[in-house]
Structure formats: structure tokens, C-alpha cells
Specification:
This protein is 48% helix and 12% strand. It has 18 helices and twelve strands. The strands form two sheets. The protein has a nine-stranded mixed β-sheet with strand order 1-2-6-5-4-3-7-8-9, sandwiched between helices. Strands 10-12-11 form a three-stranded antiparallel β-sheet. Helix 9 (162-172) links the parallel strand 4 (153-156) and strand 5. It has three domains: 1-70; 114-298, Rossmann fold; 310-386, Orthogonal Bundle (Arc Repressor Mutant, subunit A). The chain is an alpha/beta fold.
Length: 387
């Protein structure tokens, strides 16, 4: 524990010093090559680089390095790693941004090098007061991305509304997800999302990340600043729903300034909940999302239609209500009805090997619960909405 390289300590110190001026830290790293080199500069060189009136001139002392070393040790105790710009594992797309942080704090079930290996990062943002329309489309978008087989990582901000819808949809569809926090990586905000945050932190391939030092609390300016990381991580940013103003609009604007693709879900012309999306589309800043196929193919993915499996839906519906054996029987019945349309109960009994009375009972349950319909001739069909 505590065996950190001098460069990592210097990067951590640089991140702490220029936390609210990341562009300055980025410019100095580009100019002097490493954080260690910056801390070895004399006062005259620092004054020339930063300006004679800079408030940062006296920040590059041993005290800053000691505090950074102490923080790295504490972070390790929390299971949080620090990855500095220029170190292996720092997100390459984020490093291209002129205001990229000097370092990131990462909580993940994966080693850092596994987090960043040639994967697509797609950022999804929007309003906290998401409508049913926005929530449905956010889920549809993530499901469509999952079906492409490319397994993009879904990036968002752990906030209410769109963020949590995106994170949860990613987890439900087997995609990794990254939550960019406006607090220290040890502090989850809002508290209601601790459970989801803990799951993200434990999953291999997913992570909680922040550029703020440990114990940083949630303040308004931090949410605005963290949006640049959401925009910088993703090769594309999707704005699901937003009014004329809001964090999602800021993130989309930053992504556009980084020369990344921006997509927006159009809404009704008079809907204030979609005013921001419509404005970005009208200005040419965002590409409109007119269908899942339109989006996935625009991203360079192969579109694959959703395959509805009624037997899986039934298994979820009856889980905990009937025995696993009965669920298997129901699955067999549904598969037979899908294969032989308008199959009679007698034919169904023969196809499944169950006796007629058993088939009739289970088919009655399925009819009552809306999975199938049975006509007067006792012929079974999958119900329209499930077909």
C-alpha cells in the first residue's frame, strides 16, 4: 500500500491544484511533458508560464506533494484508483480535450487497463424531469445499442431522470456503464442512488469516475464542470430530452465543441420538454433520432431488430408466483403455440406431451393473464400485443 510513482503523486497534486482550471494543467503538461517536470520548475519559469499575478505560483511546494501522496493512500483504502493524464489507462478521447483533467479517480471492478481497451463510449444525457416519452425512448435507444453486438459503454452522470434511466437500461441489457460524478469518488450523490452506484462500482467493465478529490461534496458548479468529462469520454453524445436550458444542453454543446457527433431526440414543436433537442436539431448541432435503426446505423453499427420472446416475458411475470417446473411447462406451451398458430388444446396436449386437463388449466391461466387467446373452437393464438 502506498507504493506510488513520483509522477503519479505529481499528477495527483497537479489535479488538486488546477481542479477548477483544468485547461491550465493540460496546457502545462503539453508544454513541459510531465507533471514531475512542472514541479521541478523554478519560480521564474513558473511565473513566466502562469503570469506574474497568478494565484498558483506558491502552490508547487512539498506540501502539495505530501497532500497528494496522503490522498492516494486514502483512495486506495476505499478501493479507488487514480489515473493521471499520460498514464496507461487514461481515456484517449478525453485526453484530446483541451480542458481534460490532470487525473481521474476510478472505482471499478476491473483493472484500469481493462476499462479503456478499444471500446466505444456513448454518452447519454438529458433532463432530470424526464417524461414518459423520454424514458421510453432512452430505454429503446440503449436496447438498440445493445442489440448491435458492439457492446458500447454507456456514459452518464448518475443524476435523477435521464441519467439513471440510461444507467439502469445499460445494466438490464448487459452493457457496461460509467457514471461520472460531481462529487469525490467516495461520495455518492444523490444518496438514493447508492445502491445502483455500488453495483456499477462492483461490475467488471463499469465504473464510477470523478476528477474531484476525495470527500468533495455536491455543489452546483461541480455538476456543470463534470459535464465536460461526460462529453469528452463519448465518441458521440445523445440528448434524449431537454428544455431550452439545462445540463444536457451544456453537455451536448461541449461534445459539439470537441468535434464529436451529437444526436437529439426530436419532440413536438410546442413541447417545452423537447425545446432544447429541437433547437439543436434546427441549428444543425445535432443529428435527429428518427428511429433506432437511424441512430445505430449513423453510429456505424449494424442494426438488429428486437426479437420478442414471449416465453421469457412469461417467466419473468410468473417468477415467484408458481413453481419453476410450472414455468417450464408454460414456456413449452407458448413455444408450441408460436410454432403452430391456432393450435387446438388437444393438439397442444399432443405436441407438449402433457395431459389435456393440465394443458387446459395452464392455457386458462395464460389467457387470463393476457398472453394468449382461446377461441370457441379451443384454438390458441398468441395475443396481439405479444405476437
Amino acid at each position: 500500500m502506498g507504493d506510488f510513482s513520483d509522477e503519479k503523486i505529481c499528477l495527483c497534486a497537479l489535479n488538486r491544484i488546477f481542479g477548477y482550471a483544468p485547461g491550465t494543467a493540460s496546457a502545462m503538461l503539453d508544454c513541459f511533458g510531465s507533471a514531475g517536470s512542472i514541479f521541478r520548475l523554478g519560480k521564474d519559469v513558473l511565473r513566466e508560464a502562469l503570469g506574474p499575478e497568478s494565484k498558483y505560483l506558491d502552490a508547487f511546494g512539498q506540501e502539495a506533494l505530501d497532500m497528494a501522496a496522503k490522498e492516494l493512500e486514502e483512495a486506495e483504502k476505499y478501493g479507488i484508483a487514480f489515473i493521471g493524464r499520460g498514464e496507461k489507462g487514461y481515456p484517449p478521447l478525453l485526453a484530446e480535450c483541451q480542458d481534460a483533467p490532470a487525473g481521474l479517480y476510478v472505482r471499478s471492478g476491473s483493472p484500469l487497463q481493462c476499462m479503456i481497451q478499444e471500446r466505444d463510449y456513448i454518452s447519454i444525457v438529458g433532463t432530470r424531469n424526464i417524461s414518459d416519452y423520454g424514458r421510453e425512448w432512452c430505454r429503446r435507444i440503449v436496447e438498440a445499442l445493445a442489440r448491435t453486438g458492439r457492446q458500447p459503454v454507456i456514459v452518464s452522470g448518475l443524476a435523477y431522470g435521464t441519467d439513471m434511466t440510461a444507467h439502469m437500461a445499460a445494466l438490464e441489457n448487459g452493457l457496461d456503464t460509467i457514471a461520472v460524478m460531481a462529487t469525490g469518488a467516495d461520495t455518492v450523490y444523490p444518496c438514493a442512488h447508492r445502491g445502483v452506484a455500488g453495483k456499477i462500482a462492483r461490475l467488471a467493465g463499469s465504473a464510477l469516475i470523478s476528477d474531484y478529490p476525495l470527500h468533495t461534496k455536491a455543489i452546483a458548479v461541480n455538476f456543470i464542470r463534470r459535464n465536460r468529462i461526460i462529453a469528452g469520454l463519448g465518441r458521440a453524445t445523445i440528448l434524449v430530452e431537454s428544455g431550452a436550458r439545462g445540463g444536457g444542453m451544456i453537455t451536448a454543446g461541449q461534445a459539439f465543441s470537441y468535434d464529436r457527433d451529437v444526436y437529439a431526440l426530436p419532440g413536438r414543436a410546442d413541447d417545452i420538454m423537447s425545446a432544447g433537442c429541437n433547437a439543436l436539431i434546427r441549428s444543425g448541432t445535432a443529428i435527429p433520432i428518427t428511429s433506432e435503426k437511424n441512430l445505430t446505423e449513423s453510429l456505424g453499427y449494424e442494426f438488429r431488430k428486437k426479437t420478442f420472446r414471449i416465453e421469457e416475458a412469461a417467466a419473468v411475470h410468473y417468477s415467484g408466483k408458481i413453481s419453476p417446473g410450472q414455468i417450464d411447462e408454460i414456456a413449452g406451451i407458448l413455444l408450441a403455440i408460436k410454432k403452430f398458430r391456432r393450435i387446438s388444446l388437444q393438439e397442444l396436449a399432443e405436441a407438449t406431451g402433457m395431459d389435456y386437463k393440465r394443458i387446459a388449466g395452464l392455457a386458462g391461466i395464460l389467457e387470463n393473464d393476457g398472453f394468449i387467446s382461446i377461441d370457441l373452437m379451443k384454438r390458441c393464438s398468441i395475443k396481439g400485443k405479444n405476437a
